[in-house]
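Q: Convert this sequence to structure tokens.
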Amino acid sequence: MNDLPAHEGTSRDLPAFLTEFLRRPMIVGAVAPSGPDLAGDITAAVPRTGEPVVVELGPGTGAFTGAVQRRLGGRGQHVAIEVNPRLARRVADRHPAVRVVVADAARIGDVLSSYRLPAADVVVSGLPWAAFSERRQRSMLSRVVAALSAGGAFTTFAYRHVRWTGPARRFHGLLTESFEEVTVGRTVWRNLPPALVYHCRRPVRIAATS
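A:
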């Protein structure tokens, strides 16, 4: 299936997304797909030149996948890791150029190795980090850091209304431990619910908690 316009894909995916949220709310983490404005912000780190390796964690129905593909324009490698097989199948059908893998995002290193890719230049995350325990946050983030190249970039988002909760603040602290540069983007008010993007560059190593 060819790429849909961003707004059309979001509206068409809403029933499927809501169904998966009701089945597994702590894993899906949202009641609606992210909108095109947020997709544009979170994929801004994907280079428009060269042959970058981009890994997408938790693509869901593909709200960010199409934006990544448009920035790549047929270049590089795009790997998407989705734990939900139904959502993974939708992304694979819609974006045949993307290597979609059904797996836990914590296996990012194994997935890259399976494709003989040494490291990711960019990791784009749609995971619900604020819903994770401290151990899970630290363990997952350490694997992302280990999978990135020395000058790599990591982008993820947070909903504005939960940004100051304990889990969200803890995650922001882990980001500042894990990257030399962490900046917070503008609030995307048109997203449902409003959200903002963390732009992280130049990873450093942190200790994982098993």
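The CA atoms of residues 130 and 199 lie 16 Å apart.
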